[in-house]
Amino acid sequence: MNQSEPSSNKPQRILSGMRPTGRLHLGHYKGVLENWLKLQNSEQCFFFAADWHALTTDYANPEVVKNTIWDMLIDWLAVGIDPEKSTLFIQSEVPEHAELHLLFSFMTPLSWLERVPTYKDQIEQLREKDLGTYGFLGYPLLQSADILMYRADAVPIGEDQVPHIELTREVARRFNHLYRKGIPPLFPEPKSLLMPTSKLPGLDGRKMSKSYGNTIELSESWKTTEKKVKQMLTDPARKLRTDAGTPEKCPVWDFHTVYSTEEERAWVQEGCTTAGIGCVDCKGCLLKHLEEELQPIRERRADIASRPDDVRDIVKAGNEKARREASRTMEKVRKSLKMGYRV
After folding, report:
1. Domain 220-303 is classified in which CATH homologous superfamily?
2. 211 vs 330, which has greater pLDDT?
3. Are 79 and 218 in contact (CB under 8 A)?
4. 270 Cβ partners below 8 Å, 6+ apart?
């Protein structure tokens, strides 16, 4: 397994993306965006809205992408992704990604794609969708094109994405071997930058997912969040206020492990196991922390959403910067492939 830590000397080039397939929720913030916020302060970051990737599973409903992509970008800005520090762009606005994906497809063995673990896993999980398509089989290669287009040094990922980075490293090696003999390699072999993963579950204890209806959305009102938390299921043993409970059996406790102080967690443990506090008290402590974190984000979000032209200008500038970088890479790729005909 290849790992990398952000360099304290020379900034690394970082590439990461997110699919616009629905409203962002607290799981996205704690699991991805908080990591991006740290990286943008020390590294050279490219963050993109992966609309083509969204079509690998939602190709029959492209309106899903259209209806969510700008909300997602606004959420990024609201949590603090800074266009002065990072390049924000939309994948399909840089068509060079498609060209590089196509060229990689000619030299990538089919067996490399078939062995990616998430390929069979997602087909199994998404049985209601017809994923027997070339695009779905090839989406890890499109990821490789996304990464290598910017000659990224590292990619922030969770454990489940390590095989995708390994594929990208193999693709880089194969291209350099086939087309760069006797000259310096064009593509670096990017490292897996294993980031802290979110320990935050959904409101029902399962993974936080819009498909389960157990999310806290970044864009929802505080009143909605408060209602959701107050209605959260708790330890089934606590049917009455006087019943003792076990915090570890309660989804609310999982939130406390992320948000509450050590003293507060000790208070919850003592109070729950002795029936010294009720579930309303426990949730009240959690709500205090959620409000402290979410309300500033939502205020910024409302302000940013009220200025759509500014958002579009930010993304347009990011698209242009990304495309300039992509054009430089593709010029070298075409030259390596003996393309560039005089006509």
Report:
1. Tyrosyl-Transfer RNA Synthetase (1.10.240.10)
2. 330
3. yes
4. 276
